[in-house]
Amino acid sequence: MTPNAEGATVVAASVLAGFGVTLVNFARDESVDAQTALTFLVFLIAFGGLHLAVRTWAPRATTLLIAPIAGLTALGFIEIYRLEPVRAGLQRWWILIAAGVAITVLALFARSSTTILRRYRNIILLVSLILLLLPNLPIDWGFPLKGLVVNGSRLWIVLDMGFTTLQFQPAELAKLGFVVYVAAYLADHQKALREARRQVGPIRFPEPRQLIPLVVTWVVSILILISQRDLGASLLLFAGFVLLLYAATGTTGYLVVGGFMAAVAGVASVYMFEHVNRRVVAWLTPFQHYDDEGYQIAQGLFAMGTGSLSGAGPGLGRPDLIPNASTDFIFAAVGEELGFAGTVSVIALFALVVAVGLGISFRSRDMFRKLLAAGLTFVFAVQVLLIIGGVVRVVPLTGITLPFMSYGGSALVGNLILIALLLRISHEEAT
Amino acid sequence: MNGPVRRISIGIFTSFCVLLLAVTWIQVVHADTLKADPRNARPALSERGKERGLIVTIDGTVVAESVVDPADPRSFVRTYPEGEAFAHVVGYNSFLLGDSGLEEAYASVLRSKRDLTISDLLSVILGRDLRPHSLEMTVNGPLQRAAYEALAGQAGAVVALDPKTGAVLAAVSSPSFDPESLLGEDAQEMWDSLLADPESPLSDRATKELFAPGSTFKTVVTATALDTGEADPGTEFPDPLEYELEGSTGTISNYGGGYCDDGTTVTLLVAFVRSCNTIFADLSVRLGAEDIGITAGALGFNTDLNFPWTVPQATYPVDDLVDDPAALAQSGIGERDVRATPLHMAMIASAVANQGLVPNPYLVNRVFDADGDTVETTEPVSLGRAMAPATASVLAQMMERVVTEGTGRLAAVPGVRVAGKTGTAEGAGDGPHAWFIGFAPVENPTIAIAVLIAGGGDIGESATGGAVAAPIAADLISLWLQGSQ
Fold this sequence. Notes:
The complex is a heterodimer of chains A (431) and B (485). Chain A has helices at residues 3-29, 35-57, 66-83, 85-108, 116-119, 121-133, 171-194, 212-228, 231-249, 252-272, 274-284, 295-307, 330-363, 367-391, 409-428; strands spanning 145-150, 153-160, 165-168, 198-200, 203-205. With 431 residues, chain A is mainly α. Chain A has one domain (3-182, 274-428). In chain A, helix 10 (252-272) packs across helix 11 (274-284). The longest helix of chain A has 34 residues, at 330-363. Chain A is globular and about 70 Å long. Chain A starts with a helix and ends with a helix. Chain B has a domain at 214-365 and 380-484: DD-peptidase/beta-lactamase superfamily (Beta-lactamase, 3-Layer(aba) Sandwich). Chain B contains 18 helices and 19 strands. Chain B has helices at 3-29, 31-36, 42-47, 87-90, 101-105, 107-110, 118-125, 141-151, 187-196, 218-228, 268-273, 277-287, 289-298, 318-321, 325-332, 342-353, 389-405, 465-484; strands spanning 55-56, 62-69, 72-79, 93-94, 98-99, 134-137, 156-161, 168-174, 236-238, 242-244, 251-253, 265-267, 357-359, 364-368, 374-377, 382-385, 419-425, 433-440, 447-453. The radius of gyration of chain B is 27 Å and the shape is elongated. Chain B starts with a helix and ends with a helix. At the A-B interface, helix 9, helix 12, helix 13 and helix 14 of A face helix 1, helix 2 and helix 3 of B.
């Protein structure tokens, strides 16, 4: 795709968002108002700005990333607007803020290189850990920065600025920091970690001491599960790490040991934590537990089934019957109102983003950048697979947001930084 | 170096394919099941507030109509201007309770096809009409209303048919309810209070409840006797004070005790006109369960009826009666396990009136579109012959004598030849089920009718078909013949 064609797709995505909002309004009260123009302009400014920033500061970057993410954001926004018009207004601000942050990231790297991240890896790790622990701040103390409990999970911090409060999920940024750190660490210790002398059948296993990073990550993941009750983040962290470890070393043993550790922790948590147990019950038998833990999954399935091939149309279904439709279940909302056509498009666009991300990793010659691109893409892919898989009942629901589509500012900021980093790496590695 | 990443990529894209398969399963393969799940409120919600077609009677009375909601000009509310009299047959379209009656049976016809989808847009471009279709019932508005008023709140039912076609002219169940009371937000409380009502206003006694037909079933036994040649109106029978049941200590006696005639012998005609139980118990045993079963079966007993909704099967349990002469004798007078709906008893009257041919009852005359053009017209269907034409004509004469000089004298209409048969069956409640079935005018029948006062009605214990059901039939026949002239 030429840069100009990418510009055209950004305009097309903005038109899609505006048109979708128009359809929702029309279905609601047969009126068309300023929301259409506002939405179109916000998308045009945010993604057009990102597009121009890439052309200015990373001109050799791939032109295949901004189009799918603009499309995904537009589809998600239509459903957010349909479900919660007030939140949609906030989401528009977040789209602008996130694009601004992504543009800033591109600008910051304009004179340097992403390899600079490798040098500051320890600081990045420290910052990430602090970010991750921030939600454990007291909920009610004098300091303006507090923790916040939402749906029983401690994932949020709230910044009380007196005139208004700002809520943020620091884990979304910490996630990126960990990927950067792990990529840097693995790039440094790749050789040592690769030397796996023990062999069981066709699978080579690493030395016990080489398993220390794996065990550390495993413990951290379990701590997240206990302290923040966040199954999704816990799984994401561990899966991302194991995949990257395997990518760096090619030692199948890491996958086997990692998979085994995840399985042990998983099975144990089903018995030990009620919130995990409920998720598994809801996953296996949603209709038998319709009045209780299975309700959300069952409603999601009803929504998608009723949407069938072509969907009810924006604003014409009842995705509002699904609990948390605008966050965890945005995919089911798309399935109900845009139908099979919508869900297949969404999956295809995500697959495209993942394919481009992996392609950037393939083509990278610098080991750190190769691992960074791969790691960012893995985390993105695992997140998409976990949440969509949870909604369509392939895996238990983990309660993480769908990138670019779910309502939520922190996730949008984090994911756009992720895309900005991928774009920057593809520019640096372009020949 | 790219090897591991490539292998992970394969895993990731395989997982994406699994997602695609899962979505295909949910939205394509399994979609209809999910859509139809009763816990899925979406299909019902999408119907809510949409315009539905009209339901009108054949004389043009509007009985169900969608009008613009005063609170929301984009939405419609259903109204039932005729209220209680039509409640069971027209039914209701309630968001909270679902549909019933014709509203349920013809839901796909009455429903608006306008869903504001892109396929609607295409349909409009292609010139298809998305407006809902409407129903014209066979029911006659004034007759239906008069029948409801005649029942005067007593538990009971009236069904009137056109004996030649089976078109339902009236189908009333009493007591009734206001269908509009089940549409609002308090529908569930209304429903619960109606369910708790001991008079059970929600049950459709006309087409969905079975009752012992009592002596009205003697028409079936007589038709069998005439058809098989076992007896004719002049055949003499012994006239005992009580009929002693074979293999049992029980007896069958006549209504109010006493002989049918003078205690010697009595003709079948007199026994029929006076509705003597002793003689019909005797005759049933002589005919046998199998022969009566053949006539009953041809009249639609023990089979499903083709009607807009499921009508419970009228029963004459032949197999149980073959080796049980006591039960056979009791069944001959419409007791024991013989059961039928008033709709079914009106069909039997129709068969006699229609020279032995049984018409299939139907409720909807035609379906028409928003421009009033007919989309579909119901063609009357005959269920076949239940008795020879000669049998039907002799039976008709016997039934006429019931009205002129027998138990059904109160069904007489001045200047009109009315034929009928009364019945007083043991009911479960405070009194007997009082029946009258008949048709008029005998020379060219235009109406066949079944009237039931269940559980004795207002007078309880002393109610008889001749006393409480026959007068209602007379009024309705009179009204009908005035109207149709």
